[in-house]
Amino acid sequence: MSRCSNGVAWLLVLAALGCSRPAEERTRGDLEVGHAEGPTFEVRVASGLAAIRGLTRDQLALWLSAPSTDLSFEVHEAVQLELLVENAMASVELIDLSSGQILSVSSGAVSTKKSWNVPLAPGSWHFRLSAPRAAENGRFRFALMSDVQEAIDRVQDVYRVINAQTDLDFLLGAGDLTEEGEVDELQRFQHELATLSVPYYTTLGNHELGERPPVFQQWFGRANFQFAHRGVYFTLLDSASATIDPLALEWLDGWLANARNSVHVVAMHITPLDPVGTRNAAFASRAEAAALLAKLAEGGVDLTLYGHIHSHYSFQNAGIAAVISGGGGATPEGGSGIGRHFVVFEVDAARGVVSSEVVPVDP
Amino acid sequence: MPAFGAEPAPDTGVHVESNVATTSVANPTPARPADPLTRDRKIAAAVAVVPGFALHGSGHYALGQKKTAFALLLSEGVGLALVLGGYGTLRASGNSRYLAGPAVAATVFGAGLLFASFGADLYGTLATDGAAVDSIPHAPPRLESELGYRYVGDPHFSYDHFVVESFTLRQGRFRFTPSAWFATNSSNVRYRVEAAFRLVGLEPGELGKRDDHVDVVLGGLHQRYLPERFRRSGVEVALDTRFDLAHLGDTLRGSFIDMALGYGVAKVTYDLQGLTVPADTDDLLLVKVGLGIALRGRAARGSEARVFYDHRHDDYAGAFLTPGRISGVFGQFGADLRWYFTPRLGVLADARVGSAWVSGLSLLIREGTVSSPGTSP
Q1: Which residue from A63, A99, A190, B213 puts its CA 20 to 30 A from B312's CA?
Q2: Residue range B302-310: average pLDDT?
Q3: Which of residues 220-249 of A touch B (CB under 8 A)?
Q4: Partner-chain residue, chosen from A18, A316, A334, that has the shortest CB–CB distance to B322
Q5: Measured distance CA(B99)–CA(A225) in Å, rounded
Q6: What is the ipTM of this complex?
């Protein structure tokens, strides 16, 4: 029977290595994103839609996760604040919500990196960062690009082709920006993004989990979040651990309700069900996958977007249109006949997903 | 079935107590092993760990069981080649849809062989009552029924407690096993039926010294998740095998390796009120490896303990979750223990860990077993 005891011990070791909620800490970490207190003021980014990249007595640096977000300040003493905003739409404006006044930009009028000088007296202040027509329903284009990983040295090729696209509002990412998710890799990724003409809103992938604990949220913001743009809702979920944490699923219920009568796009890294099931590049639990898809279908989701598989697949899950695009440069799936690419979508708040087009990077 | 490459086990004078007669053994007059480096099994077991962790079979080599040692080393080499070949194929092909299945199967079987050759070396250096195993009948029972409880710990689902029942009927080479799981605290059920044909191996009532088999198994599965509003129904086919490691040497009598390879396809149907949603089709690679031992001593025949890896990503256990980037890659790890107190009555304890914990205990009742020489039915 000693061998039986060994078997039990072996199972206990496995149980210690594994865990039923590997994304729990990250998900709870989402609640910390976009809130900080400095010596002269406290700032809150609505819904955590920006990572606070720097905070000093008179300077605040943000990395946006969405086209629009509100900022609230509790100012303790008068300060001339320099607000640095990265990953912003080129047309984004800073609006003082108490006066309705649009503040003039100090630098970066036509780039994704901007700054404003904002005089703040003690008290409460509310601002909105938003593109001029972001709140109006309409038609627009965005692109999906994921899975750069080890190909960061060649990512500028991809950005050049993306920049050549006309009328893209933003680029959406479904994770695996880096190989391991280490600080220098995330820093490098943000540095490379400086040449991109549109902002890149992304969740993380399993390749961002090499660092313990993962530092993705410090650089790019929340792993689970929702934003709306021109009447279309975008929900990004953290499936990097081949599961979605139950806490994030609770949030999803609310996000599905928000978008119930609107066009709704949901993106995550690992697909619930791999179109090639024997490969298992999908959720760890097929039952959890089906439960999530049932929830998305019932919530009226119009489009699901995934990464992780280094190819392009267009299919349906639970009757919802689905696209896998992992063409950011990581080793392509052999035999799939497609290399580096991204996918451009045209969506309309009234009509839904109007079109999609796969754009190859390498001729 | 003749054992190939088998050498007599060294008699160290240390035997596990057995209630099974040991008269009809293969080697009634064991020959002495050739040039053992040591006759002390504790030292041999230590050698099986260091350098045996890297050179499988080292423990047997130290005991002078050179052919068995070589067979284990060869198993390690084959296992390593399969792992490197399988994993290398996955990496090089970018997890190609055309190569992933065979590459994963090769990797799992390779890892199974690596684990088995290391474990078998350790087992063979420590087990001293291999002769007792020869007298244990390995034929399966004609009838076996199971009634038990399983706990399923999954934070994504409201169920926790299940009543489990199954029934197995064997007739000649055929086996038929319907089973059902009923959640007691949620509206969830699982029905499964298996029909198997034994290509190689003992049928009920047959006598045989070795515990080998090759079965073709057809399975059908239906699971209902009422609160989550979906059903999953599937069919699968698998080749299920057991290889008695005694073929590699008498010291390994009582140990075995299980391997299974198959394919399954399932339909996921969504039951959403007021919505017509097309079903999804989902296919599965079925690969399983296990390493086990036959229990003797106070345990009645048919008792065994096993650890296993099952590449399934479905069912209640799902696949193994980890904090790092390989979460969800591995399937389920588990162990089970089948212990018969009497020829008819026993218990099954099992545990699996994947994305959920599944563990529990069942009462087993069987009929139609073969008596071992010198024991009562």
Answers
A1: B213
A2: 95
A3: 240-243, 246, 249
A4: A18
A5: 36
A6: 0.89
